[in-house]
Design goal:
8 strands; 33% helix; disordered N terminus
């Protein structure tokens, strides 16, 4: 366990606290420029992406705490503004991992990192996995644009092969929302449950 600030949550608290502070202090006000200054600091290249455990993350944490203190917010963590958080680390052992396509009885090995990759955000199947492949475009369903790569596909018991990215005519913010892992898995699970039955 280590002391950490969950930055996506903390930044919401930071913004809310500063808004509250501005309501209590007439001489101060919270505007778009103030908000943007905070964004510029935490997004600066000098923080090197704020990777977990990095010096950049520690600087971002210290900045957030400094702003909360200035706003008069009372800490509620186990260690001031900090809260112990347990992290689970996963690592792909490339020398022990492989992936291949089987086409007409001929195995075609794929190169990890170039042709395919394993996602460490989910538990991977430890044993050999064999299933038919289904191409699912970008693997996105975006109701706001009436866009659906999964409609009509039989995904039950299949491996979905998808392209990275999104269609060029879909706004970036909208595409990013539906590419988020939680939203994407929810869409795939629903699509698999609703897969059309094959008629023999």
């Amino acid at each position: 366990m280590r002391n950490a600030l969950l930055f996506s949550v903390v930044f919401v608290f930071l913004q809310s606290s500063l808004c509250l502070y501005s309501q209590q202090s007439p001489q101060k006000h919270f505007d778009g420029q103030t908000w943007w200054e905070h964004v510029k600091f935490v997004a600066d290249d000098r923080l090197e992406g704020r990777e977990t455990g990095s010096e950049g993350l520690r600087k971002a944490e210290a900045y957030a705490v400094e702003q909360l203190v200035k706003a008069g917010v009372q800490p509620a963590g186990m260690d001031g503004f900090y809260q112990p958080v347990k992290f689970v680390s996963r690592q792909i052992m490339e020398k022990d991992s492989s992936i291949a396509l089987l086409r007409n009885g001929v195995e075609e090995p794929l190169v990890l990192g170039d042709d395919a990759f394993f996602n460490t955000r989910v538990d991977l199947v430890p044993e050999k996995l064999t299933a038919p492949l289904v191409f699912a475009g970008y693997g996105l369903k975006i109701p706001e644009r009436n866009y659906d790569d999964l409609g009509g596909l039989d995904l039950k018991g299949k491996i979905a092969v998808i392209l990275t990215g999104s269609p060029s005519d879909i706004p970036t913010a909208l595409a990013a929302h539906y590419q988020w892992a939680g939203e994407r898995w929810k869409t795939f699970r629903k699509a698999a449950r609703n897969s059309p039955s094959k008629v023999p």
